[in-house]
Amino acid sequence: MNDLVVPVALADRSYEVRIGADLLRRAESLVAPLAHGRLFVVTDSNIAQLHRSALIEGLGPTLQPRATFIEIPPGEEQKSFAGLEALCTSLIQAGAERRDLVVAFGGGVIGDLAGLAAGLVKRGLDFIQIPTTLLAQVDSSVGGKTAIDMPHGKNLIGLFNQPRLVLADLSVLGTLPKRELRAGYAEIVKYGLIDDPDFFGWCEANADRVIARETDALAHSVYVSVRSKARIVAADEREGGERALLNLGHTFAHALEASAGYDGALLHGEAVAAGLGLAFRLSARMGPCSQSPVDRVLAHLRAVGFETDLRRLPGGPYEAGRLVDIMTRDKKAEGGRLTLVLARDVGRAFVLRAAPSSEVSALLNEALTLAA
Ligand SMILES: NC(=O)c1ccc[n+]([C@@H]2O[C@H](COP(=O)([O-])OP(=O)(O)OC[C@H]3O[C@@H](n4cnc5c(N)ncnc54)[C@H](O)[C@@H]3O)[C@@H](O)[C@H]2O)c1
Ligand SMILES: [Zn+2]
After folding, report:
1. Are 101 and 125 in contact (CB under 8 A)?
2. How far is the CA of 49 from the centre of ligand 1 (A)?
3. C-alpha of residue 183 to centroid of ligand 1, in Å
4. Which ligand has an atom closest to residue 107 CA?
5. Phi and psi at residue 231, in whole multiples of 5°?
6. What φ, ψ does residue 75 adopt, rounded to 5°?
7. Whose CA is nearest to atom 3 of ligand 1?
8. pTM given for the model
């Protein structure tokens, strides 16, 4: 297949997302224009074991000798002050200078952490993203949000820091565990639900081919997702307005994840899928949406294998009061009132600011006692 290229238009910080097969093996020509000094490739031990040799080979005779690999353990715990300190220390000890390039080679954890470290070390080195999970390819590698977590919540310390290039190599997804792949699919379906009903229809017809990693289905779904995210980010880089739509399902998801703990029992994408279902149920409850889109969304999520019944969702048991507490503490909650993303229909999401938490509370109580 030919590569698909999506521009992210942000004036002098514009960059492109390249989507294709075997990009690692072509890394030399793709990365060389941005490599003015050394390359610091940050990755985790799982990815290193599976794909490091392909990247080293792809960097070729010009970039290979200039590349230093920094390998960290896998897992969300790395997105912490301790993880950030360790990575910054490695970069400084290895002699990173401002003209050098940081390469975030991994899933969302690596992208968020390495992107933040790149923005801080020596007041900022350029960085590129080579996302290796489906979630990172369709979501976290694009848009410039970088962050670590605090005990108070996820992503509380961070920077808007745009990469100079994103290389989404579909071939590396071949080794991704199926559960991780499916979790990434939740973010894909989200783009259809936000503003692209035709794409949601495509998802209904083709989800099984995406999950089976058929290259053309993966390529199309990653391309449409990235194009959608790029458009929204270009319109509202710092989330003053429209970018908040990308949080469809996420206020619920973040609360479910915080309640489950970040130990892998509930993956982010699994929480997002449950959150999408809840956002549609809430939309019907609060008026703007009829029941049939809600049923359609829930049916699709279930067909893909997501759990939409909160009573059976991994990481539980969940408790309505605790979930609402977490939601009102979310960094997007202004003054204790909730900012919610609701929908009038499939592909017609909108942001509701200062929503009362009582409706959310009633929905969660219902969802934890009745089947979805
Ligand atoms: N910055 C943003 O805009 C944004 C958006 C969404 C999510 N995020 C963040 O992304 C993180 C989640 O990212 P994730 O789901 O990619 O998780 P992850 O980075 O933890 O990766 C998931 C697991 O898959 C392994 N892995 C990665 N690529 C692989 C491959 N090709 N083959 C086999 N194994 C592979 C990893 O080692 C890890 O164990 C969260 O911290 C979340 O907050 C950020
Ligand atoms: Zn997400």
Report:
1. yes
2. 16
3. 10
4. 1
5. -65, -45
6. 120, 150
7. 140
8. 0.96
| One-letter identity of residue 171 | S
User: Dmax over Cα atoms in the chain, in whole Å?
Assistant: 62
**Tens digits of per-residue pLDDT, 76-89?**
999 999 999 999 99
Rounded CA separation 252/258 (Å): 10
At 342, list the tokens. Answer: 């609701």
Is the bond preceding residue 314 a cis peptide, omega within 30 degrees?
no
- If you ran DSSP here, which 8-state letter would residue 24 be given? G
Q: Tell me the CA–centroid distance for residue 290 and ligand 1, in Å.
A: 35
Using CA atoms, how far apart are residues 150 and 260, in angstroms rounded to an integer? 16
The per-residue pLDDT for range 23-43, each reduced to its tens digit, is 999 999 999 999 999 999 999
3 state DSSP class of 39 = strand
DSSP category for residue 361 = H
Report the atom number in ligand 1 closest to the C-alpha of 267: 15
Cα distances from 365 to residues 133, 321, 358, in angstroms, run 34, 8, 10
Collect all residues with Cβ–Cβ distance below 8 Å to 102 and sequence separation of at least 6: 40, 42, 91, 96, 114, 115, 117, 118, 125, 126, 127, 128
Q: How does 38-74 read in b/e, with b if 16+ C-beta sit within 10 Å?
A: bbbbbbbebbbeebbebbbebbbeebeeebbbbbbeb
Q: Are strands 145-150 and 153-160 parallel, antiparallel or unpaired?
A: antiparallel
Tracing tokens 């973010």 back to the chain, one arrives at 187
209 has a pLDDT exceeding 60: yes
Burial of 22 (0-12, 13-18, 19+ CB in 10 A): middle
Ligand nearest to the CA of 51: 1
